[in-house]
Design a protein that fits this description.
With 279 residues, the chain is α/β, with parallel strands linked by helices. Helices cover 29% and strands 25% of the residues. It has a single domain (3-278), classed as Purple Acid Phosphatase, chain A, domain 2 (4-Layer Sandwich). The protein has helices at 3-10, 46-58, 78-84, 86-97, 154-169, 183-200, 271-278, and strands spanning 15-19, 24-28, 62-66, 101-104, 123-124, 126-131, 137-141, 203-206, 221-223, 232-239, 242-252, 258-270. The longest helix has 18 residues, at 183-200.
């Protein structure tokens, strides 16, 4: 099955979430929560992430995780991840009690497709946002479907990561098959995702490549970025009928006091600008 068929198939039974004028959504991808060891790429940004997550909970946002939330290729036991990052899952529970959380699985947490999440939150392959006032849609998925090694042959890729690239990562050797770490694979994946969205005449919001994208001149493809950048996390916010690309980072004041900063990298852009470009 080719990548276009894999992407189309992902949305055949996707749930539809209404996108209303008062909707407040935050889309985050590629946290890669691990076991707190040297291979846990989430560890360096855990405080940024928890602060941002608390901000979105207090502001009434609905949290949508676009896959690879937990690193289940390098780690066998989800219970260890749950214990190490218990504060995150405690906040997830709070979102869940208010019906404000949606989970999409990616290639690194594909097992959520077959095993229920401890939060009892259904994990889906895709989600569709439907504008309540128009006939326009945003299509949400992780994006690994555009990459054969990370979709059809994900078990082989998991084996290679777990037993080959994980040990070598400690010596600075990067996985050459990863869309996040290999430039040519990243570029090919992005082109495929955008090509599929253009062909379907929809706006696709994905993760997987770890490279954030929000550009009204390319209205068919948006990317949240990731939570494992060296010094920041990025995400997509949808609020007041507008969309923004946001960065959370640690900054310093003049008196050397550190604080968590929220910076809008692009936006807010009215959703209507994407609708007019894809109609």
């Amino acid at each position: 099955m080719g990548y276009q068929k894999r992407l189309s198939k992902a949305f055949l039974k996707a749930n539809v979430l209404p996108l209303c004028p008062n909707s407040r959504l935050v889309l985050i991808s590629d946290c890669h929560r691990g076991q707190g060891n040297s291979n846990d790429n989430f560890l360096k940004n855990q405080h940024l992430y928890f602060y941002a997550l608390s901000y979105y909970f207090d502001k009434g946002y609905t949290y949508v995780e676009l896959g690879d939330g937990d690193e289940l290729w390098e780690n066998r036991n989800f219970s260890d991840i749950l214990e190490i990052h218990s504060n995150v899952f405690w906040l997830f529970e709070a979102f869940h009690r208010q019906n404000r959380i949606y989970m999409i699985y990616g290639n690194h947490d594909m097992e959520k497709k077959y095993h229920s999440c401890p939060l009892q939150v259904p994990c889906q392959e895709a989600l569709i946002l439907k504008d309540c006032c128009t006939s326009h849609y945003f299509y949400l998925t992780h994006g690994h479907q555009a990459d054969t090694l990370n979709s059809t042959f994900w078990k082989l890729s998991r084996f290679l990561v777990r037993y080959l690239w994980k040990p070598l990562e400690a010596f600075g050797v990067l996985d050459p098959t990863s869309a996040a770490k290999n430039y040519s694979v990243k570029k090919t994946t992005e082109k495929r995702l955008e090509h599929w969205a253009e062909k379907q005449n929809v706006t696709l919001i994905a993760g997987h490549t770890h490279r954030s994208v929000l550009d009204v001149d390319h209205p068919h493809y948006i990317n949240t970025g990731s939570c494992v950048h060296p010094r920041c996390i990025t995400c997509i916010e949808i609020v007041n009928n507008s969309i923004s690309l946001v960065k959370w980072s640690m900054e310093a004041k003049g008196d050397a006091t550190l604080y968590v900063a929220r910076k809008v990298l692009n936006g807010p852009i009215p959703l209507q600008e994407f609708y007019s470009s894809t109609s």
